Please model this.
Amino acid sequence: MRKDINRLVLLLIPTLLCACNRHQQSGSSTIPLVHKIIADASSEGHALVSGYKPEKNGGIYIVGSQDRAQAIRDELLECDKFDNVDAHRTSDGLMDFSGETICTVFDLLNTPYKKFIDEGREIDLREMTVKDVLATMDTVCYIGSYDRTGMGNKPKSKIVVLASPYLTEFGHYDVDTLFNALGCTLPVVSPLKVMINEVFDGRSKDAMVGVIAPKESISEGGYTEFVQEKAQELALTGSECVVFPSDSSQASALLGFLDKYIAAGYTKQLNAIIIDDLDVDADMMRSEFAIMQAGVNGSVETYGNLLAEDFKILDFKTSVSTECFRILRTSNQFTHNISKPAAIDFQTITPDSTNIALTKFNIAQ
Model:
């Protein structure tokens, strides 16, 4: 069921620092903007981040491209996977995020993010990610789409979700560096990282991870890097990742992936398939897996030996809602209000100033 959604606009102020053409992935040196905020104790950014602690009345912010951010928003508004009293994984007839405010930032100004990579502006993308996260922590709003003088308020963030894998690959590391340096405890959730953590949770052996990626996404190497990064944390040096784009021509998403897997010469059993594509129906794919397990259509004889006993199918919407519920539960940050989740939408627009280092919000009707 669709929810009534207030619509606002997010004003992005352009970056103040020059872009660099060198591609810097997670684990490398952070960007100059982060160093500047950390070093300048008198700056707006330093004051905002330093010692920031989420509050129960804050909002859950989802930042990214419109399609992915909206999909995650709708999942958080409607999901009922947990008992709200004891947190057991069972529906209780009450929305999991009852009483919460879901704030969505549709970044129409900067998407598609791939253009940053094509133009060699990875540092710009990393700066933009940092500034978007900082914007969710502020309370300043302007009243109208073009009125930059009337002031209003918006909720501070208590969780930020980076909806796009581009924001994970280009920016999450920088946000973590900034927060760790200044004692900020705001959780920043990456759907891709959450899914990879789920794959390796409790594992003592290497994992073979399949990824179904949208046609326009981070490179195959980007997915592989995150899998390898997690595997190395656990000293699982033989873990692998294989990425295939989604294929709408296939009648079965699961069998279509396995056909590509076989055709590419892979024989190692898969421990998980990560669905990072909106066009793939995760529930349908899980149903296909259940049919295969039941041996109804004979597919288990052809494909069964490719799937490990612990094989699982993960999708970014379900993983995000589960992770956000876990964070709010363990940190006691739920509002505990018995009401439907509220929603506020934001949208990025062209900036009109070059003098402010942080982003600001602008209310639209």
